[in-house]
Amino acid sequence: MKGRRYFVDRLMRAIFLFAALMAAAMIVILLVFVTVRGVQPFLPGYPERQEILPFLSGMRWRADQGTYGIGFIIINTLISSILGGLLALPLAVLTAIVIGRIASPKVSQGLTTVVETLAAIPSVVYGVFAAGRITSLVDNLASLFGITTYGGSSQLAVIILLAIMTYPTMTSLSISGIRAVPLTLDSASLALGATKMETYFKVVIPGASSSIVAGFSLGLGRAFGEATAVSMVAGNALFGPTTSLFDRTRTLTSTMLSGLHETTGLDYDIRFSVGIVLMAIILLTNAAIFGLKRRFDKRAQGV
Amino acid sequence: MTKTFKGKNLIRTIFLFVVILSLAIASIACDTQEEPEPNGTDPQVETPENTDEPEPETPSDGLEIHVYTRDSASGTREGFESVIGFGGELTDLASEVASNGEMANQVGNDKSGVGYVSLVTNFEENNLKPLAYNGVAPSVEATVNEEYTLSRPFAYTTRAPGDYESDDQEAIVKAFVAFLTESTEGLEAVADAGGIVDVESGKPWDEVKADHPIVDQDNSHLTIKTGGSTSVEKAVQAALETFQVHAGNVQFSLDQTGSSDGHARVLGEEKDGPNASDIGFASRNFKDTEDVTDAIYSGTFCQDAIVVVVNADNDLIDDATTEDLYAIFTGQVSDWSDVGN
Question: pTM for this one?
Fold first, then answer.
């Protein structure tokens, strides 16, 4: 009997280990694959060899002329994703407070379902909606200022779209963070004479800050990685960086996606190089967010 | 007390903010329908008293040109640029779109927009106005008659007689060319894949195949090899797939690499090399240097038409010449009222 239980225990352990290794191996395979492909255009011996510095700092992307510069695309991607995330963050946190603290159980259950449904909607659906509605909204807004747009395809349309798309991710994580703050803390705060609003903003939100920051960085990840919907409203400018909210923009993912099915050679391989840059940017942004949070936490504890 | 007020003020401010924001959005969204009226595309109706010269007053005067282009891997773009003759000179101000449908959608939403789509696009549904090219309105008939010339031929050529792996191979290639160019079934397959052909001119395959008895035997050991232009791939593959059913399960392999290989691998210097093909294709006419007189058959099996489109509300242009389009797409003119001057 004992021998059998021991055997089952070892077997399960091996299975779990295998599952964990599989997941880790996928990341490694992916990284290696993208890196090997993406580095090629810069290696000696490549037929139309590219230089790294002009690639990273270039302000024009003209595949038809063999000019591949992603400097302006990096800047545009950072601006649209971070502004989109920042636009969604306050809405997400306020929604989470309503769901986690203020609303009655029934209402909060209903709202949670809505948020979860929003998170599950495929991005191309958001794209179709954005290409029809958000762009005409932006176009009308621009005409109030006397600016003509490319049918509303603009930086602003991308920002609004990304705010809508990142909002559910940020909200769900904020909700679980806020629910994890013990109600006894609220009671203590109220007993000390704080109002409900003060309690929410000074006790509950700081208590849930880890989850909120995690939600923000996950949301930003979605914003950086969104390709289909974004390329439908970005206008895909050929040069940059974009300085006006109403001007067209171009993101790293939409650049990787456009014409991918029909192209070969350098124009194909260079998309992997863009992919490496994108992964690096996501890693750096996440590191920066958590670095900032650590600094704020330290300051808060110091005071 | 003061603290209580702070809390209440905060929530009140947020509510006010949300209410104002939604009101603003609602008012802007409602403007969508009424927007064209102040911009007056129909000056006669609005200003009957200014009967003398309402035209120059229209705000459409001074309408900026917004150029849209397909991505650089697109065959439509390649065709358009080669007919107008501005490869690589496209203006930097152009917007890139990823597909034919997206092009239609974007230009349909942008009053200043101009782009190019394939002839099968539904213009009305997308709020588009197709432009006549050098005075000829785009249509399937006009393209087939070669009156509408913003198009490119899909040309084919076979190997020389006797220059095949076997007599059966030669017979099956001849049968396929007949199927592709003469039979209703073949023409329909090409038309369904987006090629422009006169399906009416076709004869039923049962009639055509009388000259090609090879199709009645089992041909699964034979493989028709094609080469040349990548743009023809969809149409040729559709025809080959249909032909397979009608010709004893003959096999095929498409190795489309570019128009210049169409002649080279069939009649030119690569005709006996490892990439040799039975039929070569080019998405243009064969050049003078590409001699096809030795071929059993050569010619054009279909046309690919491209239509320049503007927004349906753009009343400043109906017809464009090659020079107009060159000027528009290279950025030499930036305003609709300057086109053609």
Answer: 0.74
